[in-house]
Amino acid sequence: MAVDPLIELHGVNKWYGDLHVLQNIDLTVGKGEVVVVVGPSGSGKSTLCRTINRLETIQSGAIRLDGRPLPEEGRALARLRADVGMVFQSFNLFAHKTVLQNVSLAPVKVRGRRRDQADTRSMELLDRVGLTSHASKYPAQLSGGQQQRVAIARALAMDPKALLFDEPTSALDPEMINEVLEVMRRLARDGMTIVVVTHEMGFARASANRVVFMADGRLVEDRTPEEFFTNPRSDRAKDFLSKIL
Ligand code: ADP
Ligand code: MG
Q1: pLDDT for position 140
Q2: Phi and psi torsions of 86, nearest 5°
Q3: Which of 198, 172, 180 is nearest to 90 (CA)?
Q4: Are 211 and 225 in contact (CB under 8 A)?
Q5: Measured between alpha carbons, how far is 147 from 234 in angstroms, rounded to an integer?
Q6: 94 CB less than 6 Å from ligand 1?
Q7: Subcellular location, in the record's words (predicted)?
Q8: Residue 11 has what pLDDT?
Q9: Whole-angstrom Cα distance, residue 126 to residue 144?
């Protein structure tokens, strides 16, 4: 079934000096799709995420979001960044702001919402990630899993069209991984468009529409989870899977 494309990369190339970190990447993510990106360390997964959000510039190729080319700079770029929420491995919360303030900050500052309206909406989002009772706490008073759920609520507060997750559970103790994955599973079920770099293959099997395998800056496979896990085509993917499964 053809879905409306939300994120499109066509022939994207990026270099860090001599390192060709993204090599002719073609990738389309449809509205409501969940795409899991896997691959060995250093293969370019984080760079890909940052490129989609234009936190990194590219040297050639095209990136479109919801049918429009990515703006180079200025207000249009800020708006686009707000359209694609990003959740990192290290939660990146503001340490001196409460949980509620962390979630409300960007809607007020970037979207120009009224503080009381932003706070009302933030409380709804904190409810969605199971943290209403922690709204007035500071990040340091929360567990890693709770902090990451705040980071997800904060990303959602901008009403993004898509969410990018870069190894959202890699910094967490094992017993906290599932509470974060559960929030992501629910977002996926509710139709959010999600690109996630993760080693959580259970999540990939259960929630991904597609698995994208990267190696050495190239997008080597783009398949359904079923196909990828049972019948990887490339030697690189076979080798990768034999090490992690
Ligand atoms: P992954 O997320 O798959 O581990 P990255 O996208 O972080 O891979 O990195 C891909 C390659 O680019 C690595 O070789 C890394 O060392 C290099 N790299 C990442 N960021 C930079 C940077 N800012 N400057 C130079 N090289 C970088
Ligand atoms: Mg990375």
Answers
A1: 97
A2: -130, 135
A3: 172
A4: yes
A5: 37
A6: no
A7: Cell membrane
A8: 97
A9: 16
CA of 43 to the centre of ligand 2 (A): 8
- The Cα 51–Cα 65 span in angstroms is 12
Residue to mutate (ligand 1; options 19, 56, 199, 219; most atoms within 8 A of CB):
19
Is-contact 169 200, C-beta < 8 A?
yes
Does the Cβ of 93 fall within 6 Å of ligand 1?
Answer: no
Phi–psi pair at 162, nearest 5 degrees: -150, 155
Q: Give the whole-angstrom CA distance, residue 158 versus residue 131.
A: 18
> pLDDT, tens digit, for every residue of 199-216?
999 999 999 999 999 999
Q: What is the DSSP letter of 211?
A: E
Q: How confident is the model at residue 2, as a pLDDT?
A: 65
Model ipTM?
0.98
Taking alpha carbons only, the member of 213, 100, 207, 214 closest to residue 157 is 100
Percent of the chain residues past pLDDT 70, beyond the cut: 99
